[in-house]
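Hi W.,

Here's what went into the run:
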Amino acid sequence: MTERRKLRMGLVGGGPGAFIGPVHRIAAELDGRIELVAGAFSQSPERSREAGVKFGIDPARAYANYQEMIAAESKRTDGIDFIVITTPNHLHLPVALAALEAAIPVMSDKPATATYEEALALEAAVKKSGLPYGLTHTYAGYAMVREARAMCAAGKFGAIRKVAVEYFQGWLSKPLETTGHKQAAWRSDPARSGKGGAIGDIGTHAFHLLEYISGLEVTAINATLRTVVPGRRLDDDCNAFVRMNNGAEGTLACSQVAAGELNEMRMRIYGETGSLEWRQQDPNRLIVKWLDGPEEIHHAAAGYLSKDALAVARVPSGHPEGYLEAFAILYREFADALTAWKDGNRNPLPATLPGIVAGVRGMRFIERVIESNSREGWVEF
Amino acid sequence: MTERRKLRMGLVGGGPGAFIGPVHRIAAELDGRIELVAGAFSQSPERSREAGVKFGIDPARAYANYQEMIAAESKRTDGIDFIVITTPNHLHLPVALAALEAAIPVMSDKPATATYEEALALEAAVKKSGLPYGLTHTYAGYAMVREARAMCAAGKFGAIRKVAVEYFQGWLSKPLETTGHKQAAWRSDPARSGKGGAIGDIGTHAFHLLEYISGLEVTAINATLRTVVPGRRLDDDCNAFVRMNNGAEGTLACSQVAAGELNEMRMRIYGETGSLEWRQQDPNRLIVKWLDGPEEIHHAAAGYLSKDALAVARVPSGHPEGYLEAFAILYREFADALTAWKDGNRNPLPATLPGIVAGVRGMRFIERVIESNSREGWVEF
Amino acid sequence: MTERRKLRMGLVGGGPGAFIGPVHRIAAELDGRIELVAGAFSQSPERSREAGVKFGIDPARAYANYQEMIAAESKRTDGIDFIVITTPNHLHLPVALAALEAAIPVMSDKPATATYEEALALEAAVKKSGLPYGLTHTYAGYAMVREARAMCAAGKFGAIRKVAVEYFQGWLSKPLETTGHKQAAWRSDPARSGKGGAIGDIGTHAFHLLEYISGLEVTAINATLRTVVPGRRLDDDCNAFVRMNNGAEGTLACSQVAAGELNEMRMRIYGETGSLEWRQQDPNRLIVKWLDGPEEIHHAAAGYLSKDALAVARVPSGHPEGYLEAFAILYREFADALTAWKDGNRNPLPATLPGIVAGVRGMRFIERVIESNSREGWVEF
Amino acid sequence: MTERRKLRMGLVGGGPGAFIGPVHRIAAELDGRIELVAGAFSQSPERSREAGVKFGIDPARAYANYQEMIAAESKRTDGIDFIVITTPNHLHLPVALAALEAAIPVMSDKPATATYEEALALEAAVKKSGLPYGLTHTYAGYAMVREARAMCAAGKFGAIRKVAVEYFQGWLSKPLETTGHKQAAWRSDPARSGKGGAIGDIGTHAFHLLEYISGLEVTAINATLRTVVPGRRLDDDCNAFVRMNNGAEGTLACSQVAAGELNEMRMRIYGETGSLEWRQQDPNRLIVKWLDGPEEIHHAAAGYLSKDALAVARVPSGHPEGYLEAFAILYREFADALTAWKDGNRNPLPATLPGIVAGVRGMRFIERVIESNSREGWVEF
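Here's what came out:
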């Protein structure tokens, strides 16, 4: 038995005040397969170095910008094995392109890019490069999301007829972006966020999870977008009808002005004989209801689950796993894929790990929602 | 102190196999203000008599049909004080008209009639008669619905921005109407149910409760209707966007093919600073969430509630009241109104008791949903 | 098909300020089998008459005291069929004895009497009279309590090994009895309540339900009693270990100083292969957990329930029934028994309806808890 | 700003089949302050090496036993900064003593030792050494446990009157120890587990958390122990009354034969004006109930929490943290303490991190429970 060395990761973004950068660091390293060794943490060289110290990496590898990092790391014999992108959305494409250009695999925060056109460009570049590309749709890493997906794939509920997806937050109920709040500021700035506000930030998660769990694809959408907080420059609330490729229909709603909600992502899928319900804020339980029997609660790590769900359990049933652990599953799968790719496997990404195809669909979702909203009616996906 | 005699009630419907008739009997009598004394329980004279025996009334007052009941009771000195209509929808109008004609006040199951046109006719007749008319939108009788309504009226959440209403059942997931199931049969038969399937049966409840709690009115609607079960003759699933008269928007969904759901009526209303959530299946709790403080659970009959909510509590906090008790509140309010009316009050119905205006709006809702669905877009309400 | 007339009930207690009297009236009449026709509602003749008016009965039948009621009603051809006792505990025995003496069946609020010695005397009188005697341990009327009982009886969980029963309230956290609070005053007064405070008021419910659901009997108890609020004259908090007749053990706790709790009666029973949990504040659900399968929630009125549970359902699954409906089940069963008794059945009481045996055990429970507490150790039951 | 190098950790235990060893590795490294560099993972040299490969450490540092590890690491300039003990209980003391002897700080899984006498010996050795010693009572690391502790310390509920603690699992409902199940085998073997079965494995957690949250100390205990599964050699079920140093009383129950329960640790603490409830399986919520106001749910990472609770939050409110993150908080605090100790602070352990005092009390708890059980009554603590 031979264990490989840890894979070396370079992080773009994650400087002081960032939320998601440190999360990527924890998630990437959690299963002991990856270590953060380099970063371009901030556009300010000084703050990048400061972040490097805090992350405990070699000060020489805290770079002033991603270009510098890619150039320098490419020359090292112990250079990074892959790059992680956690910048505001408008930088996703240039960083990814530069990395791919330098033959460095990419793990990217979602959404894949800032616009649909960019996503198509990125998809072409990924395909051309032949390099592994992963997209951190975090919720796809939860054990009970895997269980839900496995149950749908196994046809446990008969044909799926109806879906109800929602992702409600309340934290943008006030115009935080005018108060110096860093997270609110870039998310509501079209130049950095792209065309989507709430639909880009959280709607894409809901959309992805719907397709991921159901195994279906959205084929048409009828959406209505609103900007509820006066002065805000992007949408903060969206309601949509969706039609799936098997004829099922339902709703997909997201909001960042649902005052009082924290991070209420909830997914319900109804089939002919039963249904499932999963909530991100109660992630270790999957609620299963039947037409003719008692309601069930399936618990993470329990012996009766599918092998897909058990494969991602780290601790016994009754010991809650959370957001970071879900995140880390994606990194574990990416690490496996990267290892396989280094071993010559040209198609190493597992179906469970979101990649560029999911990225393009997510950007298409934003574009289609905006189009539907402006037409006030259904549009084909 | 003088207590009046119990008010005498005559029931139309409620024969063998009926669900809602016996419920009306229990609800009407629960607070000791009303007694069932007469009925036209079935269109079969024999079955009507049989039901009368079961209900424990004088056999002479178990009539073969409503016309006979109205005629006979009108001649008695101890005749009925009001009539209750619990038939399939297509009979609501003729029974109500006959009663009003005979100067008999009416308490009716919802929806008010089978079509919007009928509702307008009924509204005219009610107005002309000057008689009390009540509509049993049961959920309006729950204490915590009253509390939710009071909180909205008091502006506790600031301006309302967003609503999310759903009423999901699963019992029609199979074509029960083809199996001799009485409840399923008339509900899916346009001749008896009217133009609406699920939207008439339960959508009208959701619509009513939205306006009842929020204090707002729906001004536009964009709905998509489906008949999911092959061969069914009316809709069994509906998703809609709604726009309220203050600019708030949201979703209203109902379904009778949401396999595994029992009677999942859930109402969420989001304002600028907080939100509320109420579920019919957990009716003694009102969940209140704030932008800047802990989530709260308000319990029925607790001392901190509004006087509106406390007015309808019968037992101390922690002793659950349910569907029948909510139903009975409407009857208690109707009994009070009827008593006041007998005393000469020409406008005795309280704002908390749904009446003909709610009835007309409910039928308008059905009609507008169908219109929106056929146009595939928004329609004014 | 012949339906009998309604049974006539006379109520002792239930005057102004009473909580449980009106509850008995609603519960008794709810299923249309019983009507309140007479009462000795208060020890003040004037207040008794006032209550009579409020209850809508013939003023001549609102008596000044129970002796008068029994005497007068016994002479009427339309006299009461049974008497209901809802007084403070110290009157339970004399009222019951007087009724039995006059050949009037008895339905009594719990506990059966004020002391164990009284309970034995009452048991003797009941046996001697041969009359039906029922005891309103309300929670025994809930559908899901019936389901829990049926599951235990059917051995669904294998041998029962462990029980955990608790009944927590917080309303006596302050010395309410010193503030003129009527309910608090008599409950904490040994002259009216008997030897037990919280253990009599709610501990007896917990004890009864444990035996009722499990089908087992308590054979030994080790209890510790406290009076937490200074100056209070009876216990307000109790923790106990219990040993059952099959060797199972567990805890039984009750408190009226558990600040913040409303009416938290919760029962858990663990067997070899699974367990059940029922909470009075969420009464329409029974939680069932298995050693090797998903957790289940069984819903009231669902088709998969036992016939015992379905026998007491009035409305379809998803329509909550509550405290009053549970109470009414006991009255319905008492009405059936009384009818059978009038027809000559000398042993008409069903096993599901608590009676004098449960009453004696409940009083024995109070006596044994006090004995164990004073001995600071186990006592045989 | 200078960031120190990561602290180097050596692990004892954690070989193939172990549950808790890998958990310690993840938890220790999660916050980027610690790295696993050495281990004596198994008593089989070969399996130890195998585990070392799996953990990705230098093969030369996967030792055949702890003595060897301590000897070898002590000679390295880059030797381990501290040792982590995750063996069965009987090895806790010898490993700890050997480490302390070699001036190596210790982080130990609980319970501290196998017997109370051993704990006293360990306490003496820790004191004599002056070295940091931490004990991983994991649940102490949860944010909402910190919040609960802060609320009690701040007197939010007035004087504490009543406690109710339980820790129920069901996984030992069958004699797993006879089937080759490694976890079950050592836990039910007195030679490896010590005198306590369930009370040692999980009862000590419940006991610790009670004192940790309430800020009170147990002063007397009355416990009843059982071995429910025939043939088992240690207790698998325990019920106890506890008396606290302020006069509060309550129950502490633990079981590993509560069939159907996963890892149900639940803590309720009642004061004069309100109460709190925390469940390990729903760890991001703290339920707070008041005598005179709505029930509240306090959410992890919300702005209204105490600074103690916010100090341990890594992700925004609504993003669940779980068992591993709680565990990692203890390691983060230990890393801080170790760093401070290296800087000369002789008393660096924070009050929030369980240490040898908690370890001794835990072992005292086991010993007192056994004593109380044999005496069948109260014993002083």
